[in-house]
Each structure stands twice: as structure tokens, then as C-alpha cells.
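Section 3.1 - Work completed
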Amino acid sequence: MALLHWKATLANPPLRMSSWQENTSPCNWTGIMCTAVRHGRRMPWVVTNISLPDAGIRGQLGELNFSALPFLAYINLQNNSLHGALPTSITSLSALSALDLSFNQLKGKIPSEIGGLQSLRVLELSSNRLTGHIPASLGNLTMLNILAIHQTMVSGPIPEEIGRLVNLQGLQLSNSSLSGMIPKTLGNLTQLNDLYLFGNQLSGPIPQELGRLVHLHGLALNSNDLSGPIPISITNLTKMNQLFLFENQITGSIPPELGKLAKLNLLVLYENQITGPIPPEIGNLKMLNQLMLYQNQIIGSIPPELGNITMLNVISLSTNKITGPIPSELGYLLNLQNLELFDNQISGTIPGSLGNITKLVALSLYGNQITGSIPEEIGNLMNLAYLYLNENQISGSIPKTFGKLHNIQEMRIFNNNLSGDLPQEFGYLINIVVLELANNSLSGPLPANICSGAGLQTLNVAYNMFNGPIPSSLKTCSSLVEIDLESNQLTGDISQHFGVYPQLTVMNLASNRLSGLISSNLGASTQLVALHLAQNMITGPIPTILSKLSNLEKLRLDSNHLSGEIPPEICSLTHLYILNLSFNQLSGPIPTQIEKLSSLGYLDISGNMLSGSIPEELGACIRIQSLKINNNNFNGSLPSEIGNLAGLQIKLDVSKNNLSGVLPQQLGKLLMLQLLNLSHNQFSGSIPSSFASMVSLSMLDVSYNDLDGPVPSARLLQNASASWFLPNKGLCGNFSGLPPCYSTPVAAHKKGKILGLLLPIVLVMGFVIVAAIVVIIILTRYCKGNRRL
């Protein structure tokens, strides 16, 4: 029998097919239904239904001999593991009225022969791996009520022939690769309840003809590439309760006529290019639950009429160009759970009436121009979990009523003009996970029990005027992931006030008045990416335990009172990108292991008491962009390997050391370097001619050395100051304040060479002339003597 043969081809037939045995009637098998059919004088029972959804069937549908089951009217094999092609033999089932093969792994093309199943009312092929085009022959299935081919890989245009399926009630062709324009013929499907074409690559305008689909409840054309305005004809669809047009290229304004769609509960138009104001008529949509218009180019103010839509759960108008104040009428929306108005140009104050919306879970007003103080009534929002007021111009103090926000999880009020103390009531916020108050003018002590709930993950109060000790609850706040207290006036011993934080990724305590030693507890924070302790009063050595922070990318310990040597162990931090140990009291050499810092981009160890020679291994840090080792006690020569740092582009500063010897020619390979400071050392010889090829160089300071010879001409040094070159032994060049180079030692050498050649000739000629004169005198006297005789 055909069904038993098919079962035999399946991989591990599921338990639900265990009743399929040869010695029993198929009509008694699980998932099989039979009907008596008159055949002459007999009425045999024949298989009419196969219904095994979610049965765990693994095999190919092509192994089932459909021609042996001519009376099949219903097939439901959804959510199994059928694979292979959709067999054309299925088209022999002339009585078939429902075919549901959705949620399988079928692949290949949809057979065009399927258009011959004239009795078909339901065709469900969704969530398969089907490819190719939707066959135009499906337009012959005029009895069809449901056509669903979504979540596949079919491509090409939607056939215009689909417009012949006048009995269609549901058309779902979403989340595939369909392209081209939406056929105008879809306007003929006047019985349609749901039209879902979202998640394709459809383009062109929304057809006006869709306005004829008067029975439509849901229209989802989102996530395509549709353009043009929203057609006015859509406002004829008075039964519609869901309109999804988001993530397209729709232009123009929102038609005021949308206010006629009285049954609409979801209006979702976000991420388009919609312009113009929000029509006040939207306030007529009394059944609306969600109004989502974010990320468009909407202008104008928020209509007070939105306060009439008392069923609203979500208002999202963010990332537009909305101006004006927040209407106090929004306080009437007692069912509202999410109010998103961020990234606009909203001005004015926060209306206290928002405190009436006690069901509100998220209030997002950040990135506007809101002024005034925070209303105390916000503290009435007992269900509020997310409060984002950051990046505005809000002033005044934080209300003590915030201590009643027991469900708050994230509070971001940074980048405002807030002042005053942080209410001690913040210690009651036991569910707080994120607290960001940076860049305000808040003062006073931080609440001691700020981490009373032990769930705080992000604490950012940087750039305020907080003073006093580190809150005691932070020591046991092991949930911390990010802590940023930079630029305050906090005091205390960092080895005593901070604990063990296994999830910590960022610790920034810079620019405070903290003292003590760097705690060995930091070794437990193995997820740490950035450690900033700069500009404090921290003492003692750099602990070797920091070498356990294998994920560390930024280490800033500058401007403290650290002493001892740079531990070689920290050179094992291969992800380290910024290392700043400047302006401490460190001594000893640079570890030769520094070559292991393969990711290093910025190194600053200036302003210490480091000594010894500069290791040639430093030349292995080829990603370095800025290198500052000035103001130390380094001696010896500058290694030629520094010329290997091809990425060095910001600054190379070795000034104010005891370096000597000649400058290496290899420095000329630093073609991207902008600032080079070699001043206040004991370099001798000439400036390498290779410096002329340093095309990015804008500052070259070689003052206070023993250099001589010409200064190479670099294009960007044309406006150089003489102070960059003086005093030195004998530099010259075409720069203001330097002597010209014709009297340079090189010129003198050439002149000496010429004189060396001419001198013997002059001496010989002089001798000959003198001898000739002597001979002439002798002969003259001799001749006179003969005349006397």
C-alpha cells in the first residue's frame, strides 16, 4: 500500500505512525481519515485526509504515491522535516482542497502544474527552502481562500494573475526575495482580509487600487523599497485595524484622512522619509494602541489631540524634527506604557501631568532642548523601568520623589545642567541596573547605599562635583560592569573602598582625590578592558597582578605618585592599546619585553625618573602612533629600530633626557610623523638628510643639542621657528634665525680641499720668482762690476 511504502522510506518513523501496520485498516491509523465513497453498488472507505502536523516526520514527499490516493482532499504535514522537491505527482489529486506543507525543508521550484488543482482552497507552502518564481498558473486556482508562501527564497515579481483569485481572503507572500512593483490587479481581491507582502524587495508606489479592498483588516507592506506617498485611497479601508508601512522609502505627509480609520489599532510608519506635521485628525483614532512614526522627517509640534487616544500603549515619535513643547494632554493617556520622543527639537518643560500615567514603563525624552526642572510628579510612576532624560538642558535638582521609583532599572540623566545633591533616597532603588548622571553640576556625597539592591551594573557620575568618600556599598557591589567616577572630588583609599568585580569591563576613577595602593583585587576583574586611575594621589608600585588582565586595552595610571620599576609582567597584555604611566616617580629601565605589546598604539612614560638606554625592542611595536618618553634620565643613543615604527604619526618625543650620539638615518622612514621633539639632549653630528622625506612633519625641535650642518628642507617646515634649532653647535639652513650654509663645515671642507691643491703650486711659483729675482740682481751687480774694470 502507498502509505506503508512511504513510511518505510522515512528515517526513524515517528511514534505517532506506530499504528500504521499491514494487518490493520488505514482508516484506524493515527493521522488518517477515511470517507465512504459510492462506487457502483458498493461504498468502500477511502483515504481522504492525511493530518500529521508536528509529528517529527523525516523523509521525502516524493516517495508517496499520490496516484494511489485519488480521493485525498486534505493534507496537513506542517512542521515536520520533509525535504527534497515538491513532487509534481501531487497535482494528480483533483479532489484536493487543502495542502499545508509549511515549516518543512522542501526545496526547488513550485511546480506550475499545481495550478491545475481546481478544488484547492488552502495552499500553505510557507517556511520552506523553495526557490524560483511564483508560477503564474496559481492564478487558475479561483476557489482559493488562503495563499501563503512566506518565509521562502522565491524571487521575481508577484504574478499579475494572482489578481484573478477573487475568493482569496488571505494573501501572505512575506519575507522572501520578491521584487518589482505590487501588481495593480491585487485591487481585484475584494474579499481579502489580510495582505502581507512585507520583508521583500518590492519597489515603486503603493497602488491606489488597494483602496478597493474594503474588507481588509491587516495591510503589511513594510520592510521593502516602496516609494511615493501614502495613497489617499487607503483611507477607504474602514475595517482595517493594522497598517504596517515601516522600513520603506515612503515620502510625502501623513494623510489627515487616516483619522477616518476608526478601527485602527496599529499605525506603524517608522523608518521612512515622511515629512510634514502629524495631523491632528490622528486624535480621532480612539482604538489605536500603537502610534509608531519614529525615524522620519516629521516637523511641527505634537498635536494635543493625541491625548484623546486613551487606548494608546505606545507612542514613538523619536528621531524626527519635531519642535514645540510636550502637550500636557498626554497626561490623559492612562494606558500608555512607552513614550518615546527622543532625538527631536522639542523645547519647553516636562509637564507634570506625565506623572498621571502610572502604567508608564519607559519614558524616553533624551536628545532634545527641554529646559526647566524635573517635575516631582515623575516620582509617581511606580511602574517606570526606563527613564532617559539625557542630553537636554534640564536644570534644578533631582527630586527626592525619585526614591519611590522602586521598579526603575535604567536611569540616564547625563549631559544636563542639574545641580544640588543626589538624594539619599536613591539608596531605595533596589532594582537599579544602570545609573548615568555624568556631565552635570551635582555635588555633595554619593549615597552610601547606592548599590543596596546588589544588581547595579553601570554607575557613571563623571564630570560632576561630588565629594566625600566612595559609597560603602560599592565594595560589595560585585555586579558592577562599568564604573566611571572621573572628574569629581571623591576621597578615600582605593585599596579599601573597592572590592572584587568579576564582570567589570571599565573602571574610571581618574581626576579625584583618591589615595592608597592599587589593590590586588583588580586581578579578579579578568574582563577589564579599560582601567583609568590617572590624576589622583595613588602611591606604591605598579602591581604585577595587573598582568592577569588579559583583555585590557587601556591602562592609564598617569599623574599619581607611583614608584618602583615598570614591571616586565605587564608586557604580557597583548591587547593593550593605550599605556600611560607619565608623571609619576617610576625608575629603572624600560623592560625589553615591551616588544610583546603588539597592539600598542599610544605609549606615554614621560615625566618619570626612568634611566638606562632605550631598548631597541621598542621598534617591534609597529602599531604605535604616539610615543612619549621625554623628561626622564635615559642615556645612550637613539636606537635606529625606532625607524621601523611606520605607524608613528602623531608624536615622537624623546626630549629632556641624556641621549647622545648621532641621529639615525632610519628616522626618515617615519613618513606619517607630524611632531618630532629631540630637544634638550646631547645629540651630535648632523641632522640626517633623510628627514627631508618626512612629508607629514610639521614640527621638528632639535634645540639644545650639539648638532651641526644643514637642516634638511621639509615641505611642512617652511614656517619653522628658529627656537626649534637653537642653540646647537653649528646648524645652518634656509630658515629664519639660522645662518646660511655657505660657511658651513661642508663648504669649508671643500674650500680647504681647493687650498690644499693650490698651495704647493703657489709655493713653487713663489720660489721660482724669488730665485729669478736673486739671479737678476746678481747678474746686474756682476755686469756693473765689469764696466768699472
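Second construct:
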Amino acid sequence: MSADPATVPTQGAAPAPAPASFPPTRAPAERRGSVDVLAAMAKPLPFPPLDLMHDRTRTVSHAMAQSKRADEQRRRDKGKAKAEEPLDEAGISEGRRWKAGLRPGQAAKKLFPKPNLARRAYRRFFIKRDLKYGREWRPEELEEAARRGNFPHRPSDLFLKMYSDVLTCLTRDPLAGNVSPALIGTQGTIPLSIVSTIPDIMQHYQDCIVLAEKEVFLVTNYWQPSDSVKTVASGLKELNKRVGERKGEKVVVKIMWDRGAVQQLWHNHVSVSPQMWTPLGLPNPDEVPNLSLQVVNFHRPLLGTFHQKAMVVDRKIALLNSNNIQDRPNLEMMVHLEGPVVDSIYDNILISWHESLSPALPCLTGPTPTTHPDLFPFTFTDSNPYLANIDVAKAARAARKLLNRQDDQARKGEQTESLNPPEWWRRTSTSGPNPWPFGTFMHGHGHAHGHPHGLPRQESATDGAEGGKFAALVMQLIEKAREEKARLALGMSGIMNPGQDGQAAAVGSPAVMGSGAAASTAIEAPRESLLGDGIEAASIGSSDDSHTRVNGTSGKTLTGAETEKPDLGIKTQDHATAHNGAAVEPNPPGSNHPQEPSPTAAAASQEPPADVGKDLASTLPVSRNGDSNKGTVSSARLAALSKALNAGALAKIDAAIDDETLIHDFKPHLLHKAHEPFPIALVNRRPHGSPGHNDIRCPQAAAWLAALKYAERDVFIQTPTLNAAPIVRGVIEACSRGGKDGKGVPVTLFLGLGFNDKGESIPFQGGTNEEVVFRLFGQLRKLGKEDNLHVYWYTGKDQIRPLNAVHKSRNCHIKFMSVDGQCAIVGNGNLDSQSFWHSQEANILIDNPQIVADWMDQLRANQSTHKYGRVDTDGIWRDPSTGEELEKPKSISCFSAMRAVI
């Protein structure tokens, strides 16, 4: 990392120096612009003080670390007077000391007291005005914003504009973002993203839990007895077993949820006893003697729901996801984060915990990714231990093993053609386009800020050859294993002739595999995953001496076949009209590149070494839902995909698509190529229990509204519900007056048909998705801008028409926003009134066009929304073949809506 984070000073030492600024700090005499002008006009400054944003020791997590040290000192001194340690940080009086047993809520209140009522009321007006109507940020102000973050390089202007809006909220309340201000602007990497059903995400939770060495910190909204709970409980039991075998110290496990309790009327955080959590699926303390569990139930009445979903393990990795720990037929999204951003999420969860830590978290006083980055190297694909159980990572290890064996044989003279790939995985370059999009995952965005140093990646001489061979070998290993499983599922083992076998084992088409339907099995059980796993060629095309490790700023990127690919997502404004001037709709996410051709049969003159793919094949499930009458491997894959998407469904349904090849690009796990840390900002909101629509001055609302205000090319949103009045107004403004030319930008909405209609029908909630869509098109039609709005109802990967969420068969619960292909917001928050005004949420704003493009491609691949979900400009979906409209659900009365919520 190019920015040296502040280190913890010793007692009595001077405060740590501020991190280097981007760009370098100018002399005060040279600093001119709107910041000084505003001060002269007696208006509030738009940003918090620089020292507040720079002092890494002025955080709740640091205060808790000091308190823990005081407690350890008290234990050493056996209760003597020397039981306290002074607070080593700037901005706090020298006489203040942190006592042992400090609660995170106490630390937050002492570190960041709210300004007095008059000052808050004064700033309240300016902040709301800027967020609601927008503000033209000057270059000088953007540079000031860039200095108020621990970024590895200067972020893009779009990111800085959004981040500037976020910072204005901190001038009224430093904890408006529910994280210490010094940690809100940070950096990190994302080695893995999952877009799949809940079992796949919970399986990754389990994989990370069992690797814990000191602590697990897990928070969720719903905790409902289910297979998802069984998966977490199984991971905790396995962790307990491993701790016992290594005879290590107890692992501390903290869990927080929102289940509602009468006691929360007078105390929002209620401790949960083992007698209460055992019936909910958590193991009894007697079952896990090597773990120390503590559970808290948090809700802020009346409406302040704790809606956050995240997990931090050993302060090394953080998982941020859209799903609760329950079983639902939802398509969900999870991102795996590493680097200093983990410290930010850790601090955020500590503030939310609020109560005493009993026992204290071991990692409070240990090294962190911010203070000791050298101890937390960035790893990717099969080099990352937390990703070891993902099929593609296993295949990468197997492929590397095979290639190393061939190299050894070549050196010993035992093989004369070791540099040539065996026929069973060779691809011919003369057969047309690459049948598997390994070489097409790189995207030419042309953004100077895509690389930490503003320079394009230099291609290695071996990228096209060795990287391509390695990627092809990985996929062939996966295909051979999956093909065998599908054949066994259909009872066709040993029946197919070589030609059929080769055709069924098409190199480019990853197979469908049942999702985590058996997610509650033991950790050693065969791993179940969805159809196929996405992986970047650059992230696996490497040898052992140059693979996925990146240390700080001098890490090596991986080699691989990198073919330029057009920008994913919505077409830019300058391409939004046809040659005749007529408006044309932008392509849905990920569909701006040519259709990937169906792979041809691979030659099978040589079979792969049996011992190389054996371990991988043993981890792949056998589908039992295949239709033996069809007698094809694709049929088994299609049946397995439907089984996976039926996870948690009350009404299980079969696949409706006829073309089985449409499922071949499904990739629940996307292993991103190796990359340097990039700018990230936490854009959260705290819970607001009081009724009303007044709490707009929070980073989450600021980031969402800024995305719609500052977009110059396009905006893409996927959310289960969208009805918050400021968001609806922002969509209309973006479609009608957005962009540099003020003529509007395309806005694409992927929404859930009928999702939570009962709750959204309550007065003042904003209405159902259908009602909002009608209003949006009605308003834009009056302005002549209805062609800039593109609405789609979510359609499952195996379906050909949207299904109303009331059937609970195919729903989507993803919360995602992309802006201009440069920035994206992903996390917990829906774009509805409840999440916008009341619930506690956690989201990240990232500045990395490659990761954004990867996400857009993954979202497109894992659903059929862009193919079958398009809504006409009158707000009605019609079958493209028959013109038939969807059956209208029964109307919902206000009384039934209120009853459903209660």
C-alpha cells in the first residue's frame, strides 16, 4: 500500500503523522477556493476537520484496545492502583484515561460527542439542501476530500464527488456513518464475489469460520432456524474440534441479530442466554467447550431495525452480504474483503455491539491490516486459504500440480514434448473465438484511475501462451469431474461413446451442480456448489514463483490470457441513439459483448491423469433430479440448477427454459484476478427508530443520491424494492436532466415483482414496485424522457418469465448500484423507505472499473432478467411472443398490510 498508515504511538509520544495526501499538500498561502469562501461567508465547512479524519488512533477499536490493555495490566498487578492506561491520541485531553471494562458505546460517546443543538440545527439545513438538490464540487474541494481518506492513490473524480457528499454528513454528527471517521475512507481488495442462492454463501461462511484462530464476529438481521443456521452451527462445532486438536486458546465468537424483545423498549441491546439461543440452532456451550460464545439481540424501537449482515474473522477478512441467516428462494450477493477495509467494518460492528465484551476480543490488541500491512499480504485464488474449498481454486491447484509434474519430467528427459499440452485439454486457436471467456474478462475502460499508478497493466510475454494453457487446463479438470457426476446422475456411466463423451464434456460450458441443499453437512463432506465458477485468467494463469501474492505496493500481478473486452453494463449516452436518431435501449448488464459461442467437442485422444482430477471430482455432488428420459448431461445440469434455485422455496418449480445451453454461463463464485488495493468508502447508516422521513443526513443516503446526481453515462440498480421518495425523485432527475449535457442518462432498474408488497403497501412507505414503476414512467412521459428508463422484473436463470414474489419460488434480494462503470455500491441496504430512513445498514462504495465490470458480468450471467424481464414504457410486462400480460395478484388492503408487518 502506498500510503503508510498511522502507527500506534507509545505513551507520551507525539501523535502519529498524518498519511500522505493525494495530491501533496499545498502551502496554506496557495490554498484558495470555495472552502475559504464558505468560511468567509460564515457557512459551515463542507468537510470534517483534517485531524479527525487522519488520526487512526482516534477510533473506537483503538479505545477498546487501550481498555483491554488496562484490564490486562490490572490482572498483572492483581488489583493494584495501576489499573488504567492513558489514551494515546490527539484531540483528547491528557488527563483522560480508558478504564478496564470499557464498553464500545461508551468509547464512541466520549470520542465523538455530538455538536450542540444549535450547531446541529444550523448544519442540518445546508446538508439536506446539498444532498437533495446537489452541489457543484470544485476541483479544490475534491482535493480536500481526497486528503480525508486512507486511499492507496487518488480516486476518480466520480468517486470523490460521491465521497464529498458522504463527508458533509459527518460535519453534523461524526458518527453518522456508524464508524469512526478516520476509518470511513479506506482501501482493500476483493478476491471473491458470490452471486447465488443462500446455501452457497453460507457454505463460504462455514469455510471461513473453521479457519478462525482467535475470533469470529458475526452480525445479521434475521436468525431463523433453518439449513443456513445448521451450516453456521456445523462450522462452529468443527472449529471447536480443531481448537481442541491443536490445544489452543478458546476462540471468541460474538453474534448479534435482531429478533425483537419487550426489553428493547427501554434497552436496545438485550443479552441472549444459552437457554434462549439453543432452540434457535446455536450449539450449547457444553457442545463447544473450546469456544466462548456471546450473543446480543439489537433493535431500536419502533422502526430502527438492525438490518446489517456481515462477518469478520480474526480481523483478516470481512464478508459483506445481502442475505440473512435463514432459508429463502433468493438470489443473493456476497463480497469477500481483505485489507484495511476489514478494520473499518470491524470498528463499525464494535460500535453496533455497544455492550460489554465478555470476554474481550483477542484481536483488539494484535496487529491489524492498517497498522501492520506487511503481516496481511493479499492473496488470490488457490493461494488464499479462505478460498481453498471453491471448485475453481481446487482445479487451479490440480492444474498447477500437473504442469509442475510435466516440467519435472521434461528436465529429467522423461518426456520430450512436455511443453505441448496433452490432447485432452488442448484448444485450437484456428477454431474461432475462445469458447470459454477466460481471455475476455479484461475490460478496456480507458480510466486513468483504474490502476494505482494510472498506468495500464504491462502484458507479460507468457500471457497468451502459458496463461491460456493453464486457464484451459483448470476448466478441463472441472469439466471432466462435473461431466462424470452428471453422467452418474443419469445412470449413463460407461454408456456414452467417445464422441458423445467429448460433446458432453465441452470445455467451455461449466456444468450445473446442485447448490448447498445439504449445507448443514459436516465440513469434510463433499462440497456442493451451483452451476459453474467464474474465474479470471489473470488470477490463475501463473506458476508457483509468480502467482497470486501481492505485498503492499510491490506485488506481482498474475499472468494470463487477457483479451480486450468491451465495457460491460449499460451503453453510454453517446451510443444511446441509433443512426436515424431514434432512441434505442441500452443493453442490460454484461450483454454488450458478443454472445459466447457454444463450445465444440474437445479431442479425447489422451485421458487426463486420474490422480490429478480425482480429489476435485470427489468434491462435486451428484444430481438426483436429472430426467433420465432426456438422456443428456445438459438435462442433468438443468435439473440440478433448478434444484439449487429451489433452495428455501415454498413452491418448488421446474425449469421453464427449453434451450439448455442458456445455463452454461452460470457462475456463482467469481474469483477476481489479482489486483492492488483500491479506494473504498463505508457508506452506512445508523438505526433511526422514530417514525417519519427526516433522517436523510447519513452516508448511505448521500452515496445513493450522489450516484444519481453525478452519473454522466449510465446507472444500473438491482434491488428487491425501490420506493424511497428521494430515490424515486433522483431516478427522474437522472433520466430527464442527468449527464454533462443535461439531457438525461439511461437508468436501468432490475426489481422484484411483488417483493414484500404487503409491507410496502403500508401508508407512507412509498408503494409497491409496480406502483412506483407506473409513477416513474408517468412522470417521465410528461417530460418526454421515458425512453431513458429501462425497467426489468427479476427472472430466474431457469425461467422464461418473471414470477411474482408472492409465490416464493424465484426471488432476488441483491442490493447493487453501478455508476458509469467506474464506481459501485454494494451491501445490505434496499432502496425502499425502511432502509433509506430507518434501518441500520452497511455498504461499501468502491472505485475500481475492473471489479465493477466483473460484477456486472456476473449479475447478467446468473439470471435471465435481461432476456425475459423487460417492462414496456407503460409499466406493464408482456410476453414477447404472445403479448400476454402477467396475472395480477390480489389487491392488498391497508389492514392486511399492517397485520403482516405485526
